[in-house]
Amino acid sequence: MAARRNRPKPANSNPTRGGGESIVLPAWIKPQLAKLVEKAPDGPHWLHEIKFDGYRMHARLAAGRVQILTRQGNDWKGKYPAIVKSIYAGRVDTGMPVAELERL
Questions:
Q1: What percent of the chain stands above pLDDT 90?
Q2: d(CA 61, CA 25)
Q3: Is the torsion defined by CA of 14, 6, 101, 76 positive or negative?
Q4: How large is the greatest C-alpha to C-alpha distance in the chain, in angstroms?
Q5: What's the pLDDT score for residue 21?
Q6: What is the pLDDT of residues 49-100, one digit of tens each?
Q7: What's the confidence (pLDDT) of residue 78?
Q8: With contact defined as beta carbons under 8 Å apart, do 59 and 97 qualify?
Q9: Which end of the chain is more exposed for a tag (fewer CB within 10 A), N or C?
Q10: Count of Cβ atoms closer than 10 Å to residue 23 Cβ
Q11: What distance in Å separates the CA atoms of residue 26 and residue 34, rounded to the nearest whole number?
């Protein structure tokens, strides 16, 4: 429960698209955690990668304001200025870039 209190408020929950239509970003997306299984799935529709130990985070970009959010809801944008800079360099000002950020 303590993690919920730490979650930041969204940077801007009502940005607009080019045509003026409102976009409502979720304030929080629960990260999918790894699950221990006996055997990895197999077949042509599965792709696997080596999992490095790190911090699971996601980025949130709302009306040009970036947040790098940890599983506990802490904003770590100050710890990752290069990632923040690359998100600002994109062609959009609102979105949730799809990526896995890991600190090795």
A1: 11
A2: 9
A3: positive
A4: 50
A5: 63
A6: 777 777 778 888 888 889 988 888 889 999 989 989 988 888 888 888 766 6
A7: 94
A8: yes
A9: N
A10: 14
A11: 22
Question: What is the Cα–Cα distance from 52 to 34, expressed in whole angstroms?
Answer: 12
Encoding tokens for residue 22? 């409102």
Instruction: Report the alpha-carbon distance of residue 60 to residue 45 in Å, rounded.
Output: 29
Q: Tell me, what's the pLDDT at 4?
A: 44
User: Could you tell me the two tokens for 10?
Assistant: 């969204």
Closest alpha carbon to 52 in 102, 12, 1:
102
DSSP string covering 45-88, please?
A: T-----------EEEEEETTEEEEEETT--B-GGG-HHHHHHHH
Report yes or no: 25 and 62 within 8 Å, Cβ to Cβ.
yes
